Amino acid sequence: MDKDNKMRKILVTGGAGFIGTNLVLNLLMDGENKVVILDNLSRKGTEKNLELLFSRGFKNLQFVRGDIRDYRLVKKLTEKTNAIFHLAAQVAVTTSVEYPLDDFEVNALGTLYLLESCRKNAKNALFLYASTNKVYGSLSHLKLRSFKTRYMLLDRANGIDENEPLDFFSPYGCSKGAGDQYVRDYSRIYQMKTVVFRQSCIYGQYQHGNVDQGWVVHFIKKAMKGEKITIYGDGKQVRDILHVNDLIDAYVRVLNNKNKAAGKVFNIGGGIKNTFSLLELINYLERLLGREIKYEFGCWRPGDQKVFISNNRLFERTTGWKPRIGKEKGIRMLVEWLSKEA
Ligand SMILES: NC(=O)c1ccc[n+]([C@@H]2O[C@H](COP(=O)([O-])OP(=O)(O)OC[C@H]3O[C@@H](n4cnc5c(N)ncnc54)[C@H](O)[C@@H]3O)[C@@H](O)[C@H]2O)c1
């Protein structure tokens, strides 16, 4: 525990988004933290998340509607901060292909603004960056075998670890990857306490996924409404999925052990026990919801990985963390939350 300051000031960029809302709730329930959210509310559903956060009556919550590209604002907000969780981002590969300049400004330049502000105002603060497994590119060099419902990796029996070569693919891959490398480098060059989380697919409550990002919740919502799902590719692509509660547990472990984690890059995902192919998730949802789900196929998306399974060992060894919510339980929890939301 960071003992130098009893009440920690924590800045969460993108704090009204899916992961941000879950993190902010957790930090405020702890009672030891003062949380400042910086969010421009560009993502659909963020106003609803914000309402939920304020409805809980937390005294130590401040919301600033603003943009991470506003360097002056970012500099002001990082003053006297004990930790920064940098989650704000342009999150969709599809949007990045259409608007690469905007994507770069938010994901790469916005991250650099935050790092510089942190260096000037709060050099000893934890700086955690939500990166992505997309920095490893399409992984087309890995050997695979195709089965009826999924591809299987013949290499990397324990999943993909942090030593996999970087291969930025798509403007989103490039902009998030640039942020990832800057965050890593600020620890080497300026001895700052930065940490990079290369996250797999995260799912759970307060997620407002759509066809461009958040495929698990998007599939569930379509299935619950009886609408047809479009699968891009053949549906045999495999993802490891991690429930957001487990991700937040990982964030909090880093917050409380920042010296152990500083300067490190971690792959974080559901791991080998929590994988679904797209077809398998549909099949599971059919059983869970007791109805047939209609789907069709579209073209593969650029850079889509046929299999991504995170090897979490480095993070597990560093902090003792393990994902605790199994994939089927996690999906049931999300279906329950969505049913109440409807
Ligand atoms: N959800 C996942 O599966 C996943 C996987 C890998 C990485 N990530 C990363 O985790 C982070 C959070 O993802 P999420 O799923 O919660 O997404 P989200 O879209 O729900 O949250 C992002 C938040 O950032 C805000 N935002 C966007 N542009 C901004 C800007 N210019 N200035 C200020 N705020 C801005 C949005 O309004 C939103 O509230 C992102 O950096 C994303 O790249 C997410």
Describe the secondary-structure layout.
Blueprint: E1 8-13, H1 18-30, E2 33-39, H2 46-55, E3 61-65, H3 71-77, E4 83-86, H4 93-98, H5 100-121, E5 126-132, E6 144-146, E7 151-153, H6 170-190, E8 193-199, E9 201-203, H7 215-225, E10 229-232, E11 238-243, H8 244-256, H9 258-261, E12 265-268, E13 275-277, H10 278-289, E14 295-298, E15 307-308, H11 313-319, H12 327-341
Parallel strand pairs: 1-2, 1-4, 2-3, 4-5, 5-8, 8-12, 9-11, 10-14, 11-15
Antiparallel strand pairs: 6-7, 11-13
Helix pairs in contact: 1-2, 1-8, 3-5, 5-6, 7-10
The protein binds nicotinamide-adenine-dinucleotide.
Nicotinamide-adenine-dinucleotide is lined by residues 14, 16-20, 38-43, 46, 67-69, 87-91, 106, 110, 130, 132, 176, 199, 201-202.
Please describe what this structure looks like.
The chain has 342 residues and is α/β, with parallel strands linked by helices. It has one domain: Rossmann fold (3-Layer(aba) Sandwich). Helices cover 41% and strands 20% of the residues. It is built from twelve helices and 15 strands. The strands form four sheets. Strands 3-2-1-4-5-8-12 form a seven-stranded parallel β-sheet, with helices on both faces. The chain is globular. It starts with 7 loop residues before the first strand and ends with a helix. The relative contact order is 0.14. The model has no long low-confidence stretch (mean pLDDT 96). Nicotinamide-adenine-dinucleotide (NAD) binds next to helix 1, strand 2, helix 5, strand 5 and strand 9.
